[in-house]
Design goal:
This protein is α/β, with parallel strands linked by helices. 37% of the residues lie in helices and 17% in strands. It binds adenosine-5'-diphosphate.
Length: 462
């Protein structure tokens, strides 16, 4: 099958979140299963880095190659994409994001014809690519080249919808008749993700549980009605994990490599982490790790309420992350009060993240909602027990069998689950068995890619 992947960020060229990991890894996994894939993304300033070998196709189109000759095309535009940020600067979103991403979508469709790549499937991701099916089914409907091309929309986080004012609608070059409640209108505004949801043949999200949750009022961010109407076309496929990056056996960032064959070697990483974090080097105290955006979505509201109680328990806590200022300030206060308990790192630091996954005993991820989540899958691979709230991808990957789960989103339940994990840690023989079970979990991209192929086949019959 010929597939084109459209995403606004793709590893290794540009990344702000999990979308880029998926858009970079899924094409490789699909190719390994025999599919023909190309990728199209905006040509941001970052791609001009000498570390990428970029070739020129046209004045405004360049490309690079990933995997075994998968072409990643970059839609260039001096005015729209030659900037440092992907979606905005430090303080706010760029005011011309609608112009930028509508341009990207239209130019992508034109490019297909120019390079004569007629895909069976266009797989689009998130609101930034959501105008592709809208244009396909409205502007390009009478052009034979685009006939019968099917589209799949993957929603990575329904909280981000691409909302713009009604006054900007003419910029899209679409008929005003599309600005109605059944299509692009959303409470008087224009909602680009909604357009993608309405005009795609199939909608999917990044975990089965999240695909159900977003059809409810609690998690749907106002789009639950649209999803409900299309519920027979809504699916969920868990993201895979790139085990060439996340593997304790080969990880270059950790002080001691280990595997199921020598799990004991894991404790050297704990010592190393305690030293780096200036915490007392003790093997018999459970070390809890967090690598996360410091945001309410990630559970920091209940964590903030619980933190002083947690710090009085017999444990250590390493936190790596950046995010909301209020959490920065609160955690800094806690460090001053409990310097032997908390070690805080308010930055983005990939090597330290690897050390935390390897050196902690328990990985804490109490997200309020979580479309898929990578942290829990990484920590399982490193034999670090995940402690999670039962939601979205966390519910699909962590059970009482390979971690600790609470299902009432409240600080008390978080504290009790931490207590439970501490007790389990103190039972050494049981703990080792748990680690083993965790390390045996497998969330490879191969399995996810097979599921995507089944979905593409389903779309072909729509
Ligand atoms: P998100 O909603 O932020 O995409 P995920 O769990 O899907 O959450 O993925 C987050 C990824 O980013 C994980 O690989 C995690 O290790 C990494 N990460 C998050 N914060 C940091 C940080 N401060 N430093 C290093 N890596 C981080």
């Amino acid at each position: 099958m010929k597939i084109i992947m459209c995403a606004s960020e793709v590893v290794p060229f540009a990344k702000t979140g999990g979308l880029a990991d998926v858009a970079g890894a899924l094409p490789l996994a699909l190719q390994n299963l025999g599919e023909e894939v190309i990728v199209v993304m905006p040509g941001y300033k970052a791609i001009q880095s000498p570390k990428f070998s970029i070739k020129r196709l046209r004045d405004d189109i360049s490309y690079a190659v990933i995997g075994k000759n998968i072409k990643v095309y970059f839609i260039e535009n001096e005015k729209y994409f030659n900037r440092d940020g992907l979606y905005g600067d430090k303080t706010s979103d760029y005011p011309d994001n609608l112009d930028r991403f509508s341009y990207y979508c239209k130019r992508t469709l034109e490019l297909l014809k120019e390079i004569n790549f007629r895909p069976g499937i266009i797989h689009i991701h998130d609101w930034q690519a959501s105008l592709v099916p809208v244009y396909l089914k409205n502007l390009y409907i009478n052009d034979g080249f685009y006939k019968n091309i099917k589209t799949i929309l993957t929603i990575h986080n329904i909280g981000y919808q691409g909302l713009f004012s009604k006054e900007e609608f003419p910029k899209l070059g679409l008929d005003w008749s599309l600005f109605n409640m059944e299509m692009l209108e959303f409470y008087g505004k224009m909602n680009i993700l909604k357009g993608g949801m309405v005009f795609s043949d199939i909608i999917n999200t990044v975990s089965p549980t999240y695909s159900k949750e977003i059809q409810t009022k609690e998690f749907g961010f106002g789009l639950e009605g649209v999803l409900n109407k299309r519920r027979d076309s809504v699916f969920g496929i868990l993201n895979g994990l790139d085990y060439s990056i996340w593997n304790p056996e080969t990880d270059k960032f950790i002080s001691q490599n280990y595997s199921l064959q020598n799990i004991n070697a894991k404790h050297k990483n704990k010592e190393d982490l305690q030293r780096i974090c200036k915490l007392p080097v003790k093997n018999d105290v459970p070390l809890f790790g967090i690598v996360s955006r410091l945001a309410q979505q990630k559970g920091f509201d209940i964590l903030a309420e619980a933190i002083s109680k947690i710090c009085k328990m017999e444990l250590q806590l390493v936190i790596l992350g950046t995010g909301d200022l209020k959490y920065h300030l609160l955690l800094e206060k806690m460090v001053k009060k409990f310097p032997e308990v908390i070690s805080l790192h308010l930055k983005f630091d990939d090597p330290l993240a690897h050390k935390i996954y390897a050196g902690s005993d328990i990985f804490v991820m109490p997200s309020k909602y979580e479309p898929c989540g990578l942290g829990q899958m990484i920590s399982l691979k490193y034999g670090t027990m995940p402690l999670v709230f039962k939601t979205g991808g966390l519910a699909d990957t962590v059970t009482e069998d390979n971690g600790f789960v609470f299902d009432n989103y409240h600080k008390k339940d978080l504290i009790n689950t931490i207590k439970k994990a501490t007790q389990a840690f103190n039972n050494k023989s049981k703990w080792e068995k748990l680690i083993e079970k965790a390390m045996r979990c497998n969330f490879s991209w191969e399995e996810s890619a097979r599921e995507y192929i089944r979905l593409y086949e389903k779309a072909s019959t729509c």
